[in-house]
């Protein structure tokens, strides 16, 4: 969300952001609606003042004047009520349009409508070449009895998974490892519910645009969250923090759920695109300073890269285009890990800076050194998400006999064993 004053004074910049992010929003209609609302509110205040003035005259008026004064007061009250009735619909329409207002993207972001416009800015590691016919992750799971994908489908439907044996243990240890690693960077670990109220999704920015991707618990007025960011954004919503409390650094762990609506036919095999997963998420609330935000963006991205390097997974860093980064993002970098069976990189991490766009929706504020209450900046980044990360981990480190050799950086998780 942007402030209406910014929209009025920086209209051309806002128009450019709307076009760059491919949003269907008429800024002129929004400004006209704002003017109508302001005018109506002013007239309502004037009519109420007039009614009060007339009422104050009534007791001292002559008997032959009271009928006329009564009619004037009644007419003023009736007109105010009519304006208020119409105003409610206009305010609702205005608020709905404001929720569609995109954040202003970083000037260095590639401009384009979708992921085909993303740019690779850096590649780390070399995709592995095999001197044998490699297996994909599903074949590795089956060969080693590390999952039961067919039976669990009978229980829970498509795009579900069930890990077994040492791989199930490794998944849990990877999540705990990611929590500890990010905690070492000064972040407070926090476990979070998998569900939240509708207003939490609005504050975070997922609603109204991505409602169809979210599981709804209709009887309880709750929704299942696809990221810990939903709950983390809401933790301090409505509070006025002191600048000395910033930055607030959380590393959240939660189960996550996504309906994957509109993704039929994409990545249906195995663990890449499932309905339920677990994720360790980095989240920052910091001062409303562009340089401070930029510094945290690099730290978040660097922390995720460190984990990928420890797992010895080749990856590339993506500068995400304006049309692919999402409504509220200022800047977004994806990390894409190499998947041998697909012969391409696939997104496993996403790092986002939102400036004050999210904070305005969530009312995340602090009192700065000048005593002024301002909106904070927020950032988030995946530290590790499973089972997606298991796909490149298994495939890149498989051996000719169908086993998986654990990278040295994570062998301590499995008591120093060389093989999974």
Task: Write a structural description.
The protein has 2 domains: 96 residues, Serine-tRNA synthetase, tRNA binding domain (Helix Hairpins); 300 residues, 2-Layer Sandwich (BirA Bifunctional Protein, domain 2), CATH 3.30.930.10. It is built from 12 helices and 14 strands. Helix 3 runs antiparallel to helix 4 and helix 8 packs across helix 9. The model has no long low-confidence stretch (mean pLDDT 92). With 420 residues, it is of the alpha+beta class. The radius of gyration is 27 Å and the shape is elongated. The longest helix is centred in the N-terminal third of the chain and has 37 residues.
Relative helix content: 40-55%
Uncertain parts: none
- CATH architectural label of the largest domain: 2-Layer Sandwich
Structural class: alpha+beta
CATH class assignment of the largest domain: Alpha Beta
What's the quick description here?
The chain is of the alpha+beta class and 420 residues long.
Layout of helices and strands:
Elements lengths: L3 H6 L1 H10 L6 H32 L4 H37 L19 E6 L12 H8 L4 H8 L8 H19 L4 E4 L3 E2 L1 H7 L11 E2 L4 E3 L4 H7 L4 E3 L5 E10 L18 E11 L3 H21 L4 E5 L11 E9 L4 E10 L3 H6 L2 E3 L5 E3 L1 E10 L3 H7 L24
Helix pairs in contact: 3-4, 8-9
């Amino acid at each position: 969300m942007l402030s209406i004053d910014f929209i009025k004074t920086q209209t051309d910049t806002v128009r450019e952001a709307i076009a760059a992010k491919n949003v269907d929003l008429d800024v002129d209609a929004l400004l006209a609606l704002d003017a109508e609302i302001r005018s109506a509110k002013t007239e309502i205040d004037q009519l109420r003042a007039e009614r009060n003035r007339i009422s104050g005259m009534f007791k001292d008026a002559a008997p032959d004047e009271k009928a006329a004064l009564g009619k004037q007061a009644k007419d003023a009250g009736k007109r105010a009520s009519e304006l208020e009735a119409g105003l409610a619909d206009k305010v609702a329409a205005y608020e709905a349009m404001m929720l569609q207002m995109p954040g202003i993207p970083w000037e260095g972001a590639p401009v384009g409508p979708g992921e085909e416009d993303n740019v690779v800015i850096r590649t780390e590691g070399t995709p592995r070449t095999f001197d044998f016919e490699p297996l994909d992750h599903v074949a590795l799971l089956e060969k080693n009895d590390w999952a039961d994908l067919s039976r669990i489908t009978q229980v829970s439907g498509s795009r579900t998974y069930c890990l077994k044996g040492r791989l199930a243990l490794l998944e849990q240890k990877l999540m705990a490892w990611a929590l500890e690693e990010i905690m070492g960077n000064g972040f407070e670990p926090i476990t979070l519910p998998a569900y939240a109220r509708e207003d939490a999704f609005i504050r975070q920015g997922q609603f109204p645009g991505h409602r169809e991707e979210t599981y709804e618990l209709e009887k309880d007025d709750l929704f299942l969250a696809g990221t810990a960011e939903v709950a983390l954004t809401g933790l301090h919503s409505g509070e006025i923090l002191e600048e000395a409390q910033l930055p607030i650094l959380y590393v959240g762990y939660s189960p996550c759920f996504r309906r994957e609506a509109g993704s039929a036919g994409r990545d249906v095999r195995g663990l890449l695109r499932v309905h339920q997963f677990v994720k360790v998420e980095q989240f920052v609330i910091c001062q409303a300073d562009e340089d401070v935000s930029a510094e945290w963006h690099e730290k978040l991205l660097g922390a995720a890269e460190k984990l990928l390097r420890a797992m010895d997974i080749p990856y590339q860093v993506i500068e995400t285009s304006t049309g692919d980064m999402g409504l509220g993002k200022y800047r977004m970098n994806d990390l894409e890990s190499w998947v041998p069976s697909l012969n391409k990189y696939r997104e496993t991490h996403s790092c986002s800076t939102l400036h004050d766009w999210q904070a305005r929706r969530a009312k995340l504020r602090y009192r700065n050194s000048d005593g002024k209450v301002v909106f904070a900046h927020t950032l988030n980044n995946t530290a590790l998400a499973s089972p997606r990360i298991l796909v490149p981990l298994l495939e890149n480190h498989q051996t000719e006999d169908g086993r998986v050799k654990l990278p040295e950086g994570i062998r301590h998780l499995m008591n120093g064993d060389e093989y999974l």
